[in-house]
Structure formats: structure tokens, C-alpha cells
Amino acid sequence: MNYPSEAPESARLFERAGVVTPGGVNSPVRAFGAVGGTPRFMVSGKGAYLTDADGREYVDLVSSWGPLLHGHAHPAVIDAVTKAAAHGTSFGAPTVNEVALAEEIVARTAIDQVRLVSSGTEATMSAIRLARGYTGRSTVVKFAGCYHGHVDALLAAAGSGVATFATPETEGVTGAQTHDTVVIDYNDAEAVWELFEQRGDEIACVITEASPGNMGVVPPRDSFNQVLREATLKSGALLISDEVMTGFRVSRSGWWGLEAVDADLFTFGKVMGGGLPAAAFGGRADIMAKLSPGGPVYQAGTLSGNPIATAAGLANLQLATDEVYSRLDAVSTELQGMVSAALFGAGVPHRVQYAGNMFSVFFFDREDDVREVRNYDDSRTQSASKFAAFFQEMLARGVYLPPSGYETWFVSGALDDGAMSRISDALPYAAQAAAA
Ligand code: PLP
Fold this sequence. Notes:
- This protein has 436 residues and is an alpha/beta fold.
- The chain has helices spanning 8-20, 75-86, 96-108, 120-135, 175-178, 189-199, 224-235, 285-288, 307-319, 322-346, 376-379, 384-396, 417-435, and strands spanning 42-46, 49-52, 57-60, 113-117, 139-143, 156-157, 167-168, 181-184, 203-209, 238-242, 265-268, 279-283, 350-355, 358-363, 399-400.
- The protein folds into 2 domains: 8-70 and 321-435, Aspartate Aminotransferase, domain 1 (Alpha-Beta Complex), CATH 3.90.1150.10; 75-319, 3-Layer(aba) Sandwich (Aspartate Aminotransferase, domain 2).
- It is built from 13 helices and 15 strands.
- A hairpin with a 4-residue loop joins strand 2 (49-52) and strand 3 (57-60).
- The radius of gyration is 21 Å and the shape is globular.
- It binds pyridoxal-5'-phosphate.
- Its cofactor is pyridoxal 5'-phosphate.
């Protein structure tokens, strides 16, 4: 299989989209900016495969950026969605499905209570508001390279030292909005202790990706999460573990199932929505009690706990048994080995990093550049051009990868022998393209 690089129908749709939508997409990474070429417009998905507007079929290693643990259009998820839709799309009133989904989430995790929202961004934004309301403090600590959605206060880049205020990372966010945000390097325990020594009594919360996947996969090392737990406990700040990506993906509960460091609040999304818009934040009962309507911290949503989204999420979670996670781990390990073997074979400097079944591949220009990627600065030494060459060749050979070297590859339980052999056939060509 070797599809032409032109994709006429996708190109036509992209042009049409560009007239009415900025950049032709509704989320920036979809525009293929990092890899070039025409973004593929998808028309259907089944199991491990996606089909685009030109009728080409791809093995999907994006899985809708994580939610599709069991592949596309799993019959149990589609059945749940269809049945829920037949009863009506939204009521703006409490429903049974949202109680059942909340019970399932609480049963799988370390939290007492959960509030449902519609996106991961809403979940982290609300968790931060709650942490500030609960502690009566203002400062939020985040880590460079960790992404928590497009919350104004979290679109912040590191200032010049640990004691400086963060600066906005995008136009449209004001200095006032990031004034109470401090950004430090990931995996830097010393910087955490130094910051808490200087400003511990101002800090409302530390928000961290439970195991980061938005600068490529960069797992916590040397008990970094435990350091965050100790520092926050000591100062009376809350720890927010953002499990929007890892939650219910890397284990029955998420990263917490692999490394049981207790946080005060957790955020979830992706898998718990089964491909529909559903997300959540939750934690200790005494903290959650501060939320409206019982408490003084306001939080709400017209479509929160939507009956179709919660039905999809519940079906997705009910399918996610321990056996499924074992299989996902095995598939992920096999894939990592296949990618590495092909890249070694072609002499392409690289490093594969994983966290549970999530993994990413860092390409480097020279063998001397290869390093353990511990933080955002390390991640930024990767070779964008080698990744782009590799990506395009995989696409041409029917494998759809995340279109950026800073993203995680997401496996699904639908990856069968046929899908794995398509990937295996494509890899030597893609490795050669990256070597050139
Ligand atoms: N937190 C993490 C760790 C994420 O990876 C993401 C999205 O990728 C978000 C929050 C934001 O979620 P959403 O895109 O649903 O707003």
C-alpha cells in the first residue's frame, strides 16, 4: 500500500473549511502544521481503522487523542448511544446515567465525589477554582510542558526564576490572568522545594499531569509525584492530579492505579466520555462540599452530565476490564519494539518513552543528541523534520499517527494482527524516510 501524497477530497474540504473556520480546523493540531501536507478529513471509523474522504483506510494510532480505548464504533458503545439518543438528547435536569457514571468513576478511583463537565479544560479550570476557594489562596503552580486544556491561567510560560510570575503564552491572555501562576520545570524536585520554601503559604494548588503526555511521554521520575504530595501537604496547598489523558487509559483507574500517590483533586476526561464530550473533576468529600449548590464555589454547565455522553462513557468504562488493560500493555510494548527496531535498522537516532500503554517516539538529528527526556527543554531538542518525514511515510502506507512529535501515540484494543502487520510493513519505509 502506498497512497499518493495528494488527497484531493480532503484538500477540497480543507479549502472549504478554511473559508468558514480559522485555519480550517476546530483544534489546532488537526491542521498538520507540524508535519505539513493536507489534513485528512475522516468520514468513518471501525475498530482499528479510520477511512478518510478519499476512501483511504488507515490504522489509527491516535484513537481520538485517547478516548477510544476499544477502537472505533465499538458495538456496545454505539448501542448505548443509540438507546440514550432515542430517549432524548438533553434534559437540563438530573438523569440516571450521570449517577451511574459518577458511581463507576468513584468505584474505580481514590475520590469520594465527582462533578461531571463537558471537557477536560472545564475540569481543570473548575478544579483550580475549587482549590482556590477551599484554601483561600491564589497561587497556582504548574509545570512547563504540561498541558491542562486552554484555561487562561494555565496558558502560561515560565518566568525567569522560580519566584517570578509566569507570562502569558498566547495573545489574548493578560498578565493579570497569569499573575498568580508560577511555572517550573517538570521532574525538578529541587525547584519544587525551593518554591515552597519561598512562597508555600501563598500556594493554593499544584496542578500536574499525573504522567505527562503533552510534551511527548515524560513519566515522573525519582518519586516526583511523591515530592509534590509532601510539599503540598506541608504547606496546606492542594495537589491536583490531571488524569484527563491517563485516567481509565493506563489502568482501571488511571495513573493512580500504577502509582498510588494521593492527590486532593483529580481531573478526568477522554476515556470516560467514550468519544463524546464528557469530563469530570473530583476528590475528597470535604473539598467537594465547597462546590455549588451546597458550597460557595460556583460551577455549572448546561450540558454537564449529558445523557448521551454519559451513556457512551459508562459503556466505554464497563468494557474496560483488567484483561483489556493487560492486552493494551502488551500491544503497546510490541509496537514500541517494532518502531525502535525499524529506527535502529535505518540508523535513526531516537528514544521511545512510555507510561503504561501510552508512548511516544522522540527523533533526534544526531546520535549525540539522544537523551532521556525528563522535561520540556529536553523534549524541545527533538528533530521536527525527522518526525515529519516518518509521519508522512506512515500516512502514505496507511498508518495514522499523531501529527506532531510532542504527542502521545494511543493504542486501542481493536489493534488486531492485520493492523499490526500493516504497521510492521510500513515501518521500514518510514524509518528510511526519517534517515534521509
Ligand atoms: N488535561 C490534559 C492532561 C489533557 O491532555 C487535555 C487535552 O488533551 C486536557 C486537560 C484538556 O482536555 P479537553 O481537550 O477535553 O479540553
